[in-house]
């Protein structure tokens, strides 16, 4: 298990001004923030990031949404970071998310679900490298 994972505070949560509360939850859960920046993805960047979902029916909607406004990209450190961050986020569909998870409290739908997290150590390394150079990791 790696101690690093990748996260995004998505455009819906940033638009709603919830990024501060979400970062506070992340720190409160014991993560260290190794990298963080506010970006506004182009459609092409979003398509590249979510290329694994290119064949899915929701791909266009997903890429439109992810390029619709600023988001916060983060590199998070904690023991067993990938499952720990997924647990804090909650289920992809906020209707199924457990109490006290970020998606339960801040997401509005399966498409606009406040945060993203890597699903494996291998994908965490790929996703970190997609948005951060080594020099940007503290
Ligand atoms: P995320 O963890 O960022 O990874 C892929 C994203 O696709 C997921 O969160 C959801 O926001 C989105 N997604 C998954 N299923 C659907 C769906 N049925 N309709 C719209 N978006 C979806």
CATH topology: the name is: Alpha-Beta Plaits
The percentage helix is 25-40%
Task: Give me the strand/helix succession.
Answer: EHHEHHEHHEH
Name the average pLDDT. 97
CATH architecture: 2-Layer Sandwich
Tell me, what's the shape?
globular
Distinct compounds present: adenosine-3',5'-cyclic-monophosphate
User: What is the straight-line distance between the termini?
Assistant: 20 Å
Q: What is the CATH class? A: Alpha Beta
Number of helices: 7
Portion of residues in beta strands equals 15-25%
* Unreliable runs: none
Class derived from helix and strand content: alpha+beta
Q: What is the CATH homology-level superfamily? A: Nucleoside diphosphate kinase-like domain
Q: Rg from C-alpha positions? A: 14 Å
How many structural domains does the protein architecture include? 1
Largest sheet: 4 strands, antiparallel
Largest beta sheet: what is the strand line-up?
A: 2-3-1-4
- The total strand number stands at 4
Which short descriptors sum up this protein?
single chain, Alpha-Beta Plaits, alpha+beta, 40% helix
Architecture overview:
By secondary structure, the chain is an alpha+beta fold. The protein has one domain: 2-Layer Sandwich (Alpha-Beta Plaits), CATH 3.30.70. 40% of the residues lie in helices and 17% in strands. It contains seven helices and four strands; from the N terminus they run E-H-H-E-H-H-E-H-H-E-H. It has helices at residues 11-15, 19-28, 43-49, 59-66, 81-89, 102-106, 121-131, and strands at 4-9, 32-39, 71-77, 115-117. The chain has a four-stranded antiparallel β-sheet. Helix 3 crosses helix 4. It is globular, with a radius of gyration of 14 Å. The model has no long low-confidence stretch (mean pLDDT 97). The chain binds adenosine-3',5'-cyclic-monophosphate (CMP). Adenosine-3',5'-cyclic-monophosphate binds at residues 53, 58, 61-62, 92, 110-111, 113, 116.
């Amino acid at each position: 298990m790696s101690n690093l994972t990748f996260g995004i505070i998505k455009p819906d949560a940033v638009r709603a001004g919830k990024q501060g509360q979400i970062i506070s939850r992340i720190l409160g859960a014991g993560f260290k923030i190794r990298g963080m920046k506010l970006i506004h993805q182009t459609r092409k960047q979003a398509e590249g990031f979510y290329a694994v979902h290119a064949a899915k029916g929701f791909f266009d909607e997903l890429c439109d949404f992810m390029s619709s406004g600023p988001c916060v990209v983060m590199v998070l450190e904690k023991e067993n970071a990938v499952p720990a961050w997924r647990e804090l986020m909650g289920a992809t569909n906020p209707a199924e998310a457990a109490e006290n998870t970020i998606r339960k409290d801040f997401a509005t739908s399966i498409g606009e679900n406040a945060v993203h997290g890597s699903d494996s150590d291998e994908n965490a390394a790929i996703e970190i490298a997609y948005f951060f150079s080594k020099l940007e990791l503290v």
